[in-house]
Amino acid sequence: MNEDELTPLELQSRRLFDASVERVDMRVRSRLNQARHAALAASARAPARFLGLPAWTPAAGLGAAALLGAALWFGGLPGQHALTADAQAGFEDLEIVAATDDNNGDALEMLQDDLEFYDWAAEHGAEKGVEKGVMADGNSVG
Amino acid sequence: MSAFVTLTHARMAWDDPARVPEEASLDQTRELEKFLADVERRAFRIAQVALRDADDALDAVQDAMLKLARNYGAKPSAEWRPLFYRILENGIRDLQRRRSVRKRLMAWLPGPKEDPDGEAQDPLDSVADGGPDAPDLLMQAQAMQQLERSLRGLPARQREAFMLRNFEGLDVAETAAAMGCSEGSVKTHYSRAVHALREQLGEVW
User: Residue B47 in contact with residue B92, Cβ under 8 Å?
Assistant: First the structure.
């Protein structure tokens, strides 16, 4: 508050107050001095803050990291499904089927040949019957 | 040359990052000490006017200093003043509340009753012995006592607004932050306080 803007009463009040501050006795001054030093010592003992973050931030960070680690270790995050053994076997089959062999041709073609053969064998077995010791194409065994 | 020195200091700080927070903390501590030293006697007088007791006023100021240093020492120094006075005013209100409870309890107990006006200070107590200005000082002390009596007769919020604005020189925004109210309320409380004091004391007493 600028002194020029003050009414005489406000100005008088302020001057009286300032004068009374100057008259504060030595006993009080000494106690205030001690109180100030105690406050500064307490401030030095207070936990340090980094970049204005609260003191509990490192603990919270460690806790969050531990929780994330546990979630990943025991089956992934919520909403994610662990890869089951069946699904994994299916992937491996697909890999085998899709794999190419340069010497023997395409694995898919081989699989198709096998399927045709099994189909033919099943048809003949159903129509003529397969007798013991005779193969499906009529040749005797042994 | 000074640019070179600045660069050298910056380089040293870069080489040893531990120096930066340490030095910043030291500066902050020095600044806090200066702030408390500047404010402590005025804060004591404000508390003394409100509480009418030197020891209670000392307790309130000591508590405010501790809380400010411990909880808000890391805040920018521009925020300290309103924060400090907010803590102090809260402490004063707590002490007044405790005192009124104690008074009510004492009224039920037998024994000597307390003086309702608290201890009546002799203006001569606060005047230094002898010296050429003694009569002036005595007049000042008497006028201040009159002002204090009138201030004690005001509602608490008006008294707070008057002391923070007039005695401590806080602006409206700082006073609002210290009192925990709007700037409009500060203006209202302050103008009512000035009006009431003028009615009691006259323009210049």
Answer: yes
